[in-house]
Amino acid sequence: MATGREIAQLCGVSVATVSRVFNQPETVNEETRERVLRVAKELGYQPNESARALSTKQSTMIGLVWDTDHRRPGWRHPYLQDLLIGLKSALSAHGYHLLMLATSGDAREVGASLADPVGYVNMTRRHHLGGLVLIDSGSDAEAFEAFAQSGVPCVALDVAVDGPKATYVTSDNEGGARQATSHLAALGHTRIATITGPPGNQPSEARVSGYRKALAEAGLPVRDEHIVAGDFYRTSGTLAVQRLLALDEPPTAVFAASDEMAVGALLAARAAGLRVPDDLAIVGFDDIEIASVVDPALTTVAQDKPGFGVAAAKAIMAMITGGGREDPVILPTRLVVRDSCGS
Question: What does UniProt give as the signal peptide span (predicted)?
């Protein structure tokens, strides 16, 4: 790999001129600039991003704050994996790179942890990162508010934050849950249960709200025993349906607040000797890959995963270049009807 000094020698210019070609191209005459760029391309030269950030006080690196401690399983969820890929692709298309910042045990070594978000803010400024993307691992909302008030450009995913250079991207969680529950009611179900996400999680609470509103619109009662807490993962869906089927009046339909839990519900129904959807109709939320390949294929509420990445990338770049805050983005959802709830 060629160095900047070698490029300078081959082009007959100073090292400082090579640096200006990549960091301040408008200060170098066109002929020299084109010669340096041509030689750099031929030799496969890549400017040092860290040095560039130090010299320009700007960076194409965006920090990702996401606690991947093995005790917090959020990073293993298929939906979040898909969302992260979409975000990385959207940033790359605009010349930005995603850098995962140290978290959990590693974070203490550099003085940064979600218990003390100031450490992350200082790290961001020290390395001249362009901004931060925040992904909630279950209980990070309070820390994210501190990030939002720091003045560092940041975009939170599925957590409502507000600040001078902060915004968030989320889905129409309430509307999607409302549509899913209304669909079950329209099929004639009068005992519709829901398996929720974890308490305190904003998408989870919005989906419960949508479920309640749909029942009210259909003239159906909200039964406390039909609202069972899960954690967005498969096992909690299985346990929830086992609990629901043990009721004196078990539900004939279940809206699960994630596809993972819906698959767990389907497995529990099958283990109990029930037929899906004849004996128990099931609807999920997310439209992850497994939803279309399980048997029966899962009716679900689809989120716009690529749209998440595009919206988050657009918002953070706008705040970096424009300096102000951006309005929150609420992406639409859509009901994908398959076989798990009949037709």
Answer: none
Q: Give the homologous superfamily in CATH for domain 61-171+306-332.
A: Response regulator (3.40.50.2300)
Q: In this structure, what DSSP letter does residue 113 have?
A: B
84 versus 264: which is more confidently predicted?
264
Predicted local confidence at residue 108, as pLDDT: 40
pTM of model > 0.85? no
Query: CA 193, 197, 199: angle at the middle one, nearest 5?
Result: 110
Domain ranges of the chain: 4-47, 61-171+306-332, 173-303
Residue 134's DSSP bridge partners are 65, 156
Query: How high is the pLDDT of residue 192?
Result: 98
Q: Where does 4-47 sit in CATH, by number?
A: 1.10.260
**Residues in the chain, overall count:** 343
Cα–Cα dist 297/281, whole Å: 12
CA distance 115 to 142: 9
Element (H, E) at 37: helix 30-43
Q: What is the C-alpha separation between 94 and 242, in angstroms, rounded?
A: 48
Q: Do domains 61-171+306-332 and 173-303 have the same CATH topology?
A: yes
Round to whole Å and give the CA distance between 227 and 220. 14
